[in-house]
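Example 3.2
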Amino acid sequence: MMAGRALLQEEAAVAEAAVADTAAVDTSFLLMSAYLVFFMQAGFAMLCAGSVRSKNTMNILLKNVLDACAGAIAFYIFGFGVAYGVGGKDNHFIGTGNFGLDGFTDWGSFLFQWAFAATAATIVAGSVAERTQFVAYLVYSIALTAFIYPVVVHWVWAESGWLNAFRTTGSLFGTGMIDFAGSGVVHMVGGFAGLVGAFACGPRLGRFDSDGKALPMPGHSAPLVVLGTFILWFGWYGFNPGSMLLIAGAENAVARTAVTTTLAAAAGGVTTLGIKYYTDGIWDLISVCNGLLAGLVAVTSSCSVIEPWAALICGFTGAFVYVGATKLLLKLRIDDPLEAAPLHGFTGAWGVIFPGLLAKKEFMAESYGNDSSYGIFYGGNGKLLGANIVGIIAITAWVLPTIGTVFFCLNKAGKLRISKEEEEAGLDLSHHGGKAYDLAAEKV
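Structure, written as tokens:
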């Protein structure tokens, strides 16, 4: 009798240790993914710095640094509670508790979600670069991180959100919105917020001639653009595979997600190279970098539920969406220095559509535990596509008026755009007391 009890105790101890080991592995995986997503801030910093003129380098870099700093405080105090907070009755629209992480101890999840919030805010900086007052940046960045972005997170990723795909009952069309790592939640929010900002600020001086034709205004450093692009690609392996949130028992799905991420990026880059050579007759390095990123943005929604060959199609088509949206904005005389709205907003919307076309039934079951609806090209019933289209409409209808109100108020208060003299001198001299490159000192 005693021997049997001892054996049961030993088996229970072994099982408890195995559970603890699994939890440790999953937590380590989530933290490493959070670190990778955070490192994307360095990629955005280098990409932004290289894409603007040298006289505005310090300004854009400071904005990237503060996206992490101010964004962390805003997301801690308010944003995380809006996104995931639970307080009393479930709310399908907005979180209602855990503000300031009160009563919340899942530290790894908070860190991972903060890194995503910082990414959404950073996207906007590129759209309004080189002509925006610094105080305007602080206001819109905090508004986006603390409220506008977290509300969309709650809709799609919080357990009680009305678009959530994991809801056991009451999910939209019985499937919910499939946006695995944030083509809509992160990139559409940041991209369309940037679109509103670019429109509100108006074009940079000299960007368009009197006939409305766009004049070249290239960034000052192609090497920084390439460095930033590769850092972002590297960080995307935390963004997409890391969104599985665990790895024990999901090793195959995580690895496949990394493969689809890679292939979409490659297809986006090569396709954009071909498009630019066909239209302009040049092998355009900067466009290839943006096309590569467009492939990554496009696949972010479907990366866990599509096959590798479908990822190539996703990146290929995403490149056309990015190039087409870029041309559309220029025709409308909307100046987006980093092409962030076409790259993240429009291509992100296409990425949200893609699971409704080519999500595989088996992968839906594996990633979401629900294979009742899948891609229409696999014979799906179209409910997934419908839910994702509703998600696109909802995100657009939320972001445009809310961030638009912020920019409208800033403009009315005279706090949005810098003066003509400051813009001509450059923000580094007029706002930050120096230059990023002390070329005179190198000659001494």
